[in-house]
Amino acid sequence: MAGANLSPRQRMIGMMYLVLTALLALNVSKEIINAFVTVNASLEVTNRNFADKNAQTYLAFEQAMTNDAAKAKPYYDRAKVAGTLSDSLIAYIEGIKDEVIIKVEKLDPNTPKDKITAVQDIGKKDDYDTPTTYMNGSENDGRGHKATELRQKLIEYKANMLANLAPKDTARFRSRFEELLNTDDPKVVIDKKRTWEMAVFYHNPTVAVITLLTKFQSDVKIAEAEVISHLLRDIDLGDFKFNALQARVIAPTSYVLLGQEYKADVFLAAFSTTSDPEIFVGAVDTASKSIKGEGRLLEVEGGIGRYVDRPSTEGLKKWGGIIKIKKPDNTYESYPFTAEYIASKPSAVVSLDKMNVLYIGVDNPVSISVPGVANENVTAGISGAGGSLSKAGGASYVAKVAAVGEANISITANLEGKQTPMGTFKYRVKRVPDPVAMIANTKGGNVAKNILLAQTAVIPVMENFDFELFFRVTSFKMTYIPRGKDLIEMDSNNNLITGGMKSALSNARPGDKVYFEYIRAVGPDGTTRQLSAVNFTIQ
Fold first, then answer.
1. What residues form DSSP beta bridges with 268?
2. Is 122 helix (H, G, I), strand (E, B) or coil?
3. What's the CA gap between 418 and 416, in Å, rounded?
4. Which of 39, 67, 219, 325 is most buried, taking the most CB atoms under 10 A from its CB?
């Protein structure tokens, strides 16, 4: 089976990687850094799937060798070379990944493979400096270090793979290899990244570098899959003798996103590339092995029919049909088949839209969804910390909590009429942090007399906090200490600097001290907080 087109899952992972890489340039939160762990895990699953598919292709070569070794051997030998080249490069890239983790985690260079920290457990996932130094060094063009060595390995791999192919195939695969494993310097220079090495690795965090290296391994596996599948098709399987036939459906993935295409290869094991079967999709009468009503005839090429569907709703999608193959006596035998896939939106679990805790006294936005299940079939509830959960529409919810501690969000999905628990997620519940008192947009220090006299109130400011919420100052004390004179103390029962305070400050001279103390403020959770003092020295 050829791999000329990436599956929806592969395109989704590639798109996620590009989006996350772009977001890194904006200095976004650690959630984006951690999202690379998910992308890397998905790529590793893809790599294992391709390894399994390639193993099946090599088994097909061995079957071809059993049936007609003289005809199959040239193609099998080329396939084995492609596998050796790919395995060598994948192992080399794996070594780079291990070296990056060892350097970031400061492990012993001789640490065994099974003791090297897993990607999800790396302590400094956002370390930019260590991987940049290792991959790019300190040169302006980033060449001369590990990135350049990797680039050369990729160039050599592409050249050796092309040399292993027949001349008729080199033009096609040259463009394909450059698409998968491009090693050219960027045509458009961004942030002075003039070379391939700088554009790919410079100033990327550890987890992004590891993910990118895993993507290179995936691209190598894809290249290997396409080459060996092409070589297998070049063998005239119509000349071989088979004693069993069975319908098969192979799809790159059973999970797709709304708006994406679901593709599957439908064929008979031990099929003939010179005698295409007829493949119909529709409801099957198993007794007569025929399609009920009018079926959909698939286009077939090289014995393989390609089924394409574009789901518009979420959920489990079942489909099937029959494969009709001509027998030696010119009669037809029909083989029914069935298949299914899940259509879902990209989001998979519970995620807090702003942070990883719930705060008392505010509306905490929460997104909740289950892959393959429509939002109206998802139910969520909260327990603990005096919590309540209300639906705001679609996958959006609002969580409210009343007490410090722990809250549990439980999710249930209606699957084929049965309420099925989908998991419980625990979250910490905290008070909203104290605001910082400010006057003249500052927390204290030297101030000009006219600037201080122009101020009207003590303002509580929430520093480095994502929610839009406000505290109300209910009282404070001003202490004015003129040089050589008795101090003056005045109280305010709200946040306003009183007329008496301003009158006293109108006589201030350079060097005099003014303290705004015992500042009390009430927050959205109803609690009263005492804020830090704002102390000034008159300039």
1. 247
2. coil
3. 6
4. 39
